[in-house]
User: Fold this.
Amino acid sequence: MTAGSDSVLELLPMVFAAPNDALAGAERVLDTGPPPLYASVAHQVIGIWQRDFGDLRIALHHLRRARDLAARAESADREADVLGTLGVALVHAGRTRQGLAAFERGVLRGTGHTRARVLYRRAYVWWVLGHHRRALEDVRRAIVVLRQADDVIWTARALTLRATVHLALGAVERADADFTAAEALWDTTGQEHDKADAVESRGLAAFRSGDVPAALRLLDEAAERYAKLGTPSFMLNIRRCEVLMAAGLAPEALAEADAAIAVLDGIGGQSTRKAELLLAAARAARLAGDPHTAIARAALAVRLFAGQRRTWWETHARLVLIEARVAAGRSSGRLVADAAAVADRLAAFGAPAAPEASLLAGRIALGLGWRTDAERHLAVAARSRHSGPPLARMTGWAAQALRARAAGSGRGVLEACRRGLNVLDDHRMTLGASELRARATEQGAELAALAQQASLTGGGPRRLLVWSERWRATVLSTPPTRPPADPALLSSLTAYREIAARADAARMEGRPVPALEREERRLEREIRSRTLHMRGDAPGDELGFDVGRLLERLGEARLVELAVLDGRVHVLLCGQGRVRRFEAGLLAEAEAEAEHVQAGLRRLAHPGAEGRLPVVEAAGHRLEELLLGPAAAHLGPGPVVVVPPGRLHRVPWALLPSLRERVLSVSPSASSWLRARETEPPPGGRHVLVRGPGLATGGAEVPDVADRYGRPTVLEHDEARVPRVLAELDGAALAHIAAHGTFRADSPLFSALRMADGPLIVHDFERLDRSPYRIILSSCDTARLASVGADELLGLVTALLPLGTAGVVASSAPVNDAAVVPLMLALHKGLSAGLSLAEALRDARAALPGDAVHRATGWAFTAFGAA
Assistant:
């Protein structure tokens, strides 16, 4: 490319088609000593590249040089075009006044087509600054001229921008129309960076319309496109953070925002983008339960936005700052006034966040006892309950519930909570991944707590049970969406197993594994990403929870559901045709005691720790006082089903004195127990026994168990590979898996059982058409779960229950491998005699030797479900 060639002008559109090629071409042009006109183009190209992908200070140097050279060339349109580019860079650098002045001169200098391009850029800047009406005015004027000039690229850009502004104003349908029109134009061009931006914009539109899986898929696709071009996109980071927060993944959003800020600081990038990333980080930190980090990030964002004269953005940052201060325990009349002022400004902007600010003002006022002020602010927030995206409607119903509570209307509270949770139910069922469904429930935690409080004070135990069930273990109400036809996911799962197996082998041989671990984590991210993209296709449980049906199906059994209100455990004892309520201890004390018990069980798994046995037994007595209280004396002689809250999933219930000698099972919810109780075993009665590698006992119980069942399918050695194991497990009546188990607290759906070819993870089980009717997991930690969302659990056991499994036996603690063998043999003896899992496990514990190791092993195993 030579300086005298008209092809120099082709470098400008190339910046967003092949950015790095355009940069190299511009540098070559400058090496030839070009005339001012062409040198101006080259410097502008370098300035654009540095502005969007590099150092903003270098960008400003080149763009000023491009402006001066355009003036020397006496080309008014060339100068106007550069002034438009310079104006954008100055605003991104935080020099808003200078940037707007550059646009004023650019509009005056440019004519026709060139002026339309300058107007488009100024519209973009108005959007960055939060002046959406001005942005619409400029972009509409630009589109008319650009279409008349048949400028496909710039028309597509302008349509994309107009759609983005429509989204900021809540006009989703108008945005969809513009995005669709822009995408049709992009398909006729080679503008690869612009195409990536269009995909990113469609992801934003999907998110605004409430389709989180589609938003995640499109944003991930955009990220792949940008990566191929080698160009970072900080706007994509900001949008991904927004979607991740809506999906309940606030810690991941915080990590992404902070990482992007570090990259931006490292290259001297745009100050405007840094402020936006700080705002995203502040929101994420608040949602992640870290108000002090949220305050620090939001305060800095407020200062940057104010300096950039971006009032719209500054107001949003002030909202997050007030929310974080309230979350940190602050409350004052000044905060009420600040929140109300923010709400008024947001409403004036037409921002969708205005009801959130009014709700915040009302909530603070209620806490101060200012009823009149609270009613005024809550009434404004409640207007959003009938329209808009799901989370905005939930904000409105939360405000309505608080109004009803302040007015003393328990019925009004329950109606508002019911309507709000129905909105969230509809939203959750658009999510195909069980992880997203579980995390989304956090959005309804306040409504569920308000309903439980109203039930406690004015509804009796039955109503409290209904509302306890309304928001407990909802992720188990329907199976996750399964993608059997997704070859990319299957390929990733296979590659993940291979890499994980190689890493395990290397660790055993003492070889370094950093490269394998990096690839393992990359494949984990890929698998999780594809899973989160799945859209829900199953309806919710429309029948709801029927207390009468539960009491009828219990028979002589008792169901103990533990509800937590204001930090205290309330025991709902169901049986004999009625529901009774008892108050027990504080949840925090019970959680601490459960952790002490877990530590004791870990020690008792090894010989020589007999002295710890009395300590563990004493802790079991304390746990009973905290968790059952006076209800322990009313359990009767029959079987007991315990339904604990998610935060108590690690309690070894068989250790509690009143539960040690009885038939005991645990269920995530009463509804889940009912479904398990009414699940029919599959025809054929197939038995599958699996023995994984590396067990200390070699899975010694498996041959004896096989003899008991006649001709079961036994998979061991090289036959115990994941594809074969899954094929045999699908639809089996009983499965016994003796394999090393690992629990992943950081990513519970990658908790695994070790097979001959690598880990069998929760994502694999979710691909089964029907999981085994009964399944016994005879290894450590297979019953460990992660508590997420409002009251949800993620892990191996909860993955099985919605897929057709009616009963599971698993361990919530490390166990002694040798002591497991007699327990399993005794368990299968009871099962072959026709006992349920809970009955057989009770008898198996009683048949064990009385030493500390065997007793601890018996306590560590739990029967889940009702089979």
